[in-house]
Please model this.
Amino acid sequence: MSDKVKQSRFPASLFWTVFGMLLLTAGLNVALILLGLNLSWPSIFSVHLILFYWICVSALIVLYIRRKIHKTYEIPLQEISRATEKVSQGDFSIQIPAINPPEKYDYLDIMILDLNKMINDLNGIETLKTDFISNVSHELKTPLSVMQNYATMLQSPDLDEKSRLEYAKAVSSSCRRLTALVTNILKLNKLENQQIYPKVAPYDIGERLRESILSFEEAWTAKNLELEADIADGIMVTTDGELLSLVWNNFLSNAIKFTPEGGRILVSLTRMEGDLIRISVKDSGCGMDEHTRNRVFEKFFQGDTSHATQGNGLGLALAARVAAICGGKIGVESEPGKGSEFYFTF
Model:
């Protein structure tokens, strides 16, 4: 903010107006005295006339200054007071208009602009909180309803062994889904409330990435996917390994999930210019449209609106938060029908 913006709100015109009024009234006062002497007014009359004159002049000056103060300070502060009262009652739609045009902003205008920004931020937080609660409630309700229904059917006395095992498997699957949801919510909360992580001893990130790929072997072989790895050797990092694994594990999981049987996945780790490292997972799946690409890293957003694939929409939000903590960049390149490539550079 420039010094010009920080300048006082005391109007220079007020000073010169009052100064001019005092000079003018003083001159008139001298003129009255000379007039009285010239006309030989009685002394008592002259004194009372001068007193009355100054009472009128003082009252006019005070009223003028009072009007200026009311317009300059009281009206804007009353607007701010009413706005803060509405915000305290949960109304985040209020906005206060600036007093002056942008080229004449002073510190009170800047205060109003900052207050408007704070109200907008609070409105955004309130919306996110409402959406978060709504989404969590929905995601919790679905597996709980499944568990309740199958648990009720398991109580049937004439249930055959095959059905019992099938229902028990469904309950177990819903339990795992519920556990994964709660675990991801806790992880996300921890990541959002912690900015700094201790450095660890240097390790080969390529080895960690290969271990993660092998942990998904059962999943990709079950779908007969061709998985190719292009991983550079000898890239050493000191970033928290568990944090990084959240990123590429989510990339791998989504690639396997959305790539049809017989498809192809390419995992790469490359050293770029300077100290930049790039990890990417490219698949030959269904791809995404622009709307999905723009929202894919939001909490609880799921591109598969049919929910044909299991998930809770938190995995990529976790990955995005890790990228922010590590000072890196996360992104996706995708087109419908041409697969997707998720990448992370840090």
User: Anything to note?
Assistant: The chain has a mean pLDDT of 76. The radius of gyration is 36 Å.
